[in-house]
Design goal:
heterodimer; A: 198 residues; two-stranded antiparallel sheet; 2 strands; B: 198 residues; 7 helices; 85% helix; rod-shaped
Chain lengths: 198, 198
C-alpha cells in the first residue's frame, strides 16, 4: 500500500478537470510538478539531458491523457506513475550499465561488518559519491538520491516512487549501509583523496 | 544499548555487534528521521559509547558527502516553451488529420450512396415500373388533350344542351385520368423506396 501525502492544493486542478478546463489544469500541473518529475527522472536515469527529455515526454503524455483522467488517484500520484513508467521503459531500452546487486544474505552481513566499515572513512577520506552511487543497486540508489534531492522528506520520496514509508526508510538505510560497505571494501576507488591521519 | 559495557570497555567482537545493533538508529538520527523520544535516547547513548560515536562520525561524513555531491538538477529555461511548441504541433497535426479523415469519410459515403441509388433506379423491376408509370402518364395526357380538342369542336358546332352533355363527358374523362394517375403514383410509392431509405 502506498502512503500518499495529503495534497489539498491539487483540489483546484481536480475541479478544473471536472469541468473540462484542460488547458488551465495542465498549466497548473506543469507549474507544480515539472521540477519534481524532472528530479524523479534524474534519480532514475542519472543524466540531466535524458531526464529533461523524459520530462518532456511525460508531460506530453499527461497532456494527451488529460481528458481520460477520471480522478481515481490524485493528480500527483497519476503523474508520478506515468513518470515512473516512462523512466522504466527508457531504462529497459538502455540496459547498458550493469548494476551491482546484493543478495539478501549479503545485506544481512552488512550489519555485522558495520564496525569495520568506518575505519577508512575515519581516517579522513573524501568519498567519491558519484562513483559510489553508481555501484548501488538501482532501487537503493533511487531512494538515496531522491531523499537528498527532496530535502530529506520520506513522505515525498514515497509518493514519487510509489513506495510505502517503511520501505523508503529501509531502502535508505540499506543504501547507506551498502555505500559504507563499498567504500570500505574498495577504499581507493571510493575515495577522492586521503588526508594524513594523526 | 548498554552504557555500562562501554564504560568498562568491550572486546572487538562485542563492540562490533553492539554498533551493528545501533546502526539503523544512528543513520536515521543523522538524517533527522527519529522521533523526539528516540532522538534523546540516541543522543544520551552517543555521549557515553565510543564505538557508536565513531560510527556516528562516519555516518555524518557520508551524509555530508551525499548532501554536498547530490546537487539539484535544473531544468533548462526553454523547457516550457519547447513543450508548448510540441503540444501546438500535435494539435495542428490532429486537426489536419481529423479534417482529412472527415473528407475521406464523406467521399466514401457519397460514392456508396450513389452506387446504391444507381442500382435501385436501374434494376429490372424498377425499370419496368418506370416504363409502366410513363406509359400510364402518356395515356392520361393523350386522353386529356384529345378530350379537350373534341370539347372545343363540339362547343363550336352544337346547341347549349349538347354543350352541357359534352362538358359532363369531358369531366368524366378528367376524373378517370386523375384516378389512373393517382393509382400509378400509389403503386410507384410502394414499389420504390424513398431516398431517405436509400
Amino acid at each position: 500500500m502506498t502512503i500518499e501525502p495529503p495534497q489539498p492544493q491539487d483540489q483546484d486542478i481536480r475541479q478544473q478537470l471536472a469541468v473540462g478546463d484542460y488547458h488551465n489544469a495542465f498549466e497548473r500541473l506543469l507549474g507544480r510538478y515539472k521540477e519534481k518529475v524532472f528530479r524523479l527522472c534524474f534519480s532514475m536515469v542519472r543524466n540531466e539531458t535524458q531526464a529533461e527529455d523524459l520530462t518532456q515526454d511525460i508531460f506530453f503524455r499527461v497532456w494527451k491523457a488529460l481528458s481520460g483522467y477520471h480522478g481515481a488517484a490524485s493528480p500527483s500520484t497519476w503523474i508520478y506513475s506515468i513518470a515512473r513508467n516512462c523512466c522504466l521503459s527508457y531504462l529497459r531500452k538502455q540496459r547498458t550499465r550493469p548494476t551491482v546487486s546484493l543478495a539478501e544474505e549479503d545485506l544481512g552481513r552488512l550489519e555485522e561488518s558495520a564496525s569495520v566499515q568506518h575505519d577508512a572513512l575515519e581516517a579522513g577520506a573524501d568519498l567519491d559519491i558519484q562513483w559510489l552511487l553508481g555501484q548501488l543497486p538501482e532501487k537503493y540508489r533511487q531512494v538515496v538520491v531522491l531523499f537528498y534531492l527532496e530535502a530529506k522528506s520520506y513522505e515525498e520520496v514515497g509518493a514519487m516512487l510509489g513506495l510505502p514509508l517503511g520501505t523508503v526508510k529501509t531502502f535508505l538505510y540499506r543504501g547507506k549501509q551498502e555505500l559504507l560497505k563499498i567504500a570500505a571494501r574498495r577504499p581507493n576507488a571510493g575515495i577522492k583523496s586521503t588526508r594524513s591521519s594523526t | 544499548m548498554n552504557d555500562k559495557d562501554n564504560e568498562e570497555g568491550m572486546n572487538p567482537r562485542t563492540a562490533s555487534a553492539h554498533v551493528a545493533a545501533n546502526t539503523r538508529k544512528i543513520l536515521a538520527f543523522v538524517d533527522g528521521g527519529l522521533t523526539a523520544a528516540d532522538t534523546s535516547v540516541i543522543e544520551e547513548h552517543l555521549r557515553s559509547c565510543r564505538e557508536c560515536q565513531a560510527f556516528y562520525r562516519t555516518a555524518r561524513q557520508l551524509t555530508a558527502a551525499l548532501e554536498r555531491e547530490i546537487k539539484r538538477p535544473v531544468l533548462s529555461p526553454s523547457f516550457t516553451a519547447r513543450l508548448q511548441e510540441r503540444i501546438e504541433a500535435d494539435r495542428s497535426l490532429q486537426s489536419q488529420t481529423a479534417y482529412f479523415q472527415q473528407k475521406q469519410r464523406m467521399q466514401m459515403e457519397f460514392e456508396q450512396n450513389s452506387a446504391r441509388l444507381r442500382k435501385q433506379l436501374f434494376c429490372l423491376p424498377n425499370l419496368l415500373d418506370l416504363v409502366s408509370y410513363s406509359f400510364a402518364t402518356l395515356i392520361a395526357c393523350y386522353l386529356l388533350v384529345t378530350g379537350f380538342g373534341w370539347l372545343i369542336r363540339t362547343v363550336g358546332q352544337s346547341s347549349p344542351a349538347e354543350q352541357q352533355h359534352a362538358l359532363l363527358i369531358f369531366s368524366g374523362i378528367i376524373v378517370i385520368a386523375g384516378i389512373a394517375v393517382a393509382l400509378g403514383l400509389a403503386t410507384k410509392g410502394q414499389a420504390r423506396p424513398s431516398l431517405k431509405e436509400i
